[in-house]
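Quick note —
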Amino acid sequence: FRVSADGASTPELIPGSEGDVVPNPYSVSPDGKYLAYHDQGENGNILMLTLDGSEPARTLYETPGFAGDPMFSPDGRWVAYDADDTGNWENYVRPFPGPGGKWQVSIGGGEFARWSGDGKTLFYRRRDGTVWSVAVNANEQSVGFGQPEKLFEFESGGAFDWDVSADGQRFLFVRETRSVDAGPNLIKLHANWFAEL
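Predicted structure written out below.
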């Protein structure tokens, strides 16, 4: 579904999103025409849907393994995503809408990529809680990447519990916490309760 950010409209079903496979929407192209998502089906490919319903949903990128978390670059010419093609989750970039090459961005693991506002840096996380950055150098035909640099460590869970400011200088994370006043989580075991009746 989609709804205006100010809440002035009622939720509207995105045409073509109905079906047996539940889509996981991730990123809308900068021009507002396309939605990139992955499905939870057996293939787990990257798919694309036109938001005006003019075209049916279609596979954007097929991968030998499972792929997910597609994110459009700020200029809409590239899509970063993660896949387990090699048996390890890594970040990749491909041209949009394709065809074209595939470039691996991360080394030693990477997921949940985020672009800086100018498209010159790609940020990603590893499962060990570290956050990394990679310089991006793109032209009309191809894209190149610098060496990944570790920025800091922050334990965080899924794809949508973090983001990067447009200037790439600040990070926002959601951390699950509980009130100190709530005390520890305890399981109480009451033994021999039947004898007390």
